[in-house]
Amino acid sequence: MSFSSLSLRQKGLLMTAAGPLIISPDALLIKLVGMPDSQVLFWRGALFALGMLIVLLLRSGRRIGTMFRRCGLTGLGVAVFFGLSNLGFVLGNQYTKGGNVLMILAGTPLIAALLSRFFLHERLPWRTWLSILLCLAGTSLIVLDDAGPGSWLGNAFALLSAVSMAANFTLCRTRPDIDMSPMLAVSGLFLIVVAWPMATMMGGILLPSVTQAGWLALLCLVLLPLGFTLIQRGPLYLSAADVSLLMLLETVAGTLWVWWILEEQPSLLAFIGGTVVLGTLLGKSLIERRLERQAGGSSPSDARSAARP
């Protein structure tokens, strides 16, 4: 089966799923950088903004200004929510266990589904709700060994990250014909504004070493811009809940990266949880592909997506 024979929804699934896999070394590279969180936030914001601009220039050239203008005020909201999600993720890992952060982030699809139902009046099929519950259970098994009571502040930051990411995807669905990925560059500037005073209170902005700069460049100039460009385009084709579900691939792949490079071997429960998540996402995709074929080779979302960039 060729790529051109797939429906718009199936192409959107493949494109969006590639995003979390590209950014999956995020947690590993942050560990390898080994800088204080305020420094990580500042350089993450600055390099990510630069990386996004490079991607946009390669994609659109002189039309880059038009792409930003099309996003409008909705795009500013997307930038703020995406920036808050990054802020919550980094600070959540500072104040509580990484397992707690990932477990709370696993609730992003459920939050996105509820936001879409309340604000957009989107009715999700039973298979999506079942997939959300199964993936939540699977992700919980992955991070169970690292979970703990932690700190209420760290848990609150993790919840901020989950709610903000879900709100970002839901807000994108209000303008389903507009590619909001250019606004991710603006979210990088948001991180700079937040991180600057935090770093100043701790002695100012520090220049990374050559090794640290290399890891930061790989993560923030290459992987994050490419991965999040694909993810942010997901709401052009999929519901906010479906995009959030695919984000869970990062948790599974990220665990494998840490195991391979740092030799932090996952537990048996983590392997079982990863299998549950991957099996659920694959099963849901196959079911929807079959339903599309029975309906004549197109999904209801294809008609809405036909005019999208």
TrEMBL record:
It comes from the Bacteria. The keyword Transmembrane applies. Keywords: Membrane, Transmembrane, Transmembrane helix. Residues 11-143, 153-281 form the EamA domain. The chain crosses the membrane at residues 12-34, 40-58, 70-89, 101-120, 127-144, 150-171, 183-207, 213-231, 243-262, 268-287. Signal peptide: none annotated. Pfam families: EamA (PF00892). PANTHER family: ACYL-MALONYL CONDENSING ENZYME-RELATED. This is DMT family transporter. It comes from Modicisalibacter luteus.
